[in-house]
């Protein structure tokens, strides 16, 4: 039953043209050096407790290097909600499991190889050390190891960046979340957003008529944006 459910979900996302898979080639960048061939990748260039970053299209994924080619990272995963089989949970997280994990707010701090963690992207090392004083490498790695297992997840308030910054610097913080909140603040305070919400409310009333179900959102959204601006 479980396999059938995930099969159907994978087919659904395929039909929706959701393609996240990337070629399994790893590039490692320890600024300014960079590698372009998998044969050149050597996890010996990393030190235990290093903070690793993997730039994606819309976001950056983070992990803590544990040594011996292993990386601890927090990743959304819905599978622990429906099974406790360690073999199933440890298998590579598919796109379906990841998306369902985001929706169900469930994640795992798991250990994967450097290659699986990078998943075809370049790796950046300890870029935030210039702004924050790091803990010693052993303490950072131990913090990551102590948190391995299922955890709650929030796209904005408890994501992979919160996890690694807690491990590396001693405080959970996400610069990606802060940047997103600043962007949302600028959108809300923009007078054009308020005007667009008013026009949308008028169109809703014109096309769907005046009733409690249409009048409340048509008035509430512009009023909320007006008070927040």
Our measurement of the CA-to-CA distance between the termini, rounded to an integer number of angstroms, reads 50 Å
User: What are the low-pLDDT stretches, counting only 5+ consecutive residues below 50?
Assistant: 1-41
What percentage of residues falls in helices of 4 or more residues?
Answer: 40-55%
Strand content: 15-25%
Say which CATH homologous superfamily of the largest domain is assigned. endopeptidase domain like (from Nostoc punctiforme)
Strand order of the largest sheet: 2-1-7-3-4-5-6-8
CATH topology of the largest domain: endopeptidase fold (from Nostoc punctiforme)
Secondary-structure arrangement, i.e. CATH architecture of the largest domain:
Alpha-Beta Complex
* Overall pLDDT score: 79
Secondary-structure element pattern, one letter each: HEEEEEHHEHEHEHHHH
Can you identify the CATH class of the largest domain? Alpha Beta
Major sheet size, sense and barrel closure: 8 strands, mixed
What is the tally of helical segments?
9
């Amino acid at each position: 039953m479980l396999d059938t459910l995930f099969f159907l979900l994978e087919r659904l996302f395929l039909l929706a043209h959701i393609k996240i898979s990337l070629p399994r080639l790893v590039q490692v960048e320890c600024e300014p050096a960079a590698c372009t061939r998998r044969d050149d990748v050597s996890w010996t260039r990393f030190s235990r407790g290093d903070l690793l970053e993997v730039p994606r299209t819309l976001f950056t994924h983070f992990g803590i290097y544990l040594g011996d080619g292993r990386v601890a990272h927090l990743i959304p995963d819905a599978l622990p909600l429906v099974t406790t089989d360690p073999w199933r949970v440890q298998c590579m997280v598919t796109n379906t499991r990841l998306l369902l994990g985001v929706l169900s707010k469930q994640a795992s701090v798991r250990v994967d190889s450097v290659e699986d963690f990078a998943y075809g992207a370049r790796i950046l090392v300890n870029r935030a050390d210039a702004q924050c004083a790091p803990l010693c490498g052993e303490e950072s790695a131990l913090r990551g190891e102590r948190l391995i297992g299922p955890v709650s997840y929030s796209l904005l308030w408890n994501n992979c960046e919160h996890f690694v910054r807690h491990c590396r610097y001693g405080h959970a913080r996400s610069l990606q979340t802060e940047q997103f909140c600043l962007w949302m603040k600028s959108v809300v305070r923009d007078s054009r957003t308020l005007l667009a919400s008013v026009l949308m409310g008028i169109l809703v009333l014109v096309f769907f008529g005046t009733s409690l179900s249409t009048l409340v959102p048509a008035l509430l959204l512009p009023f909320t944006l007006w008070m927040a601006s």
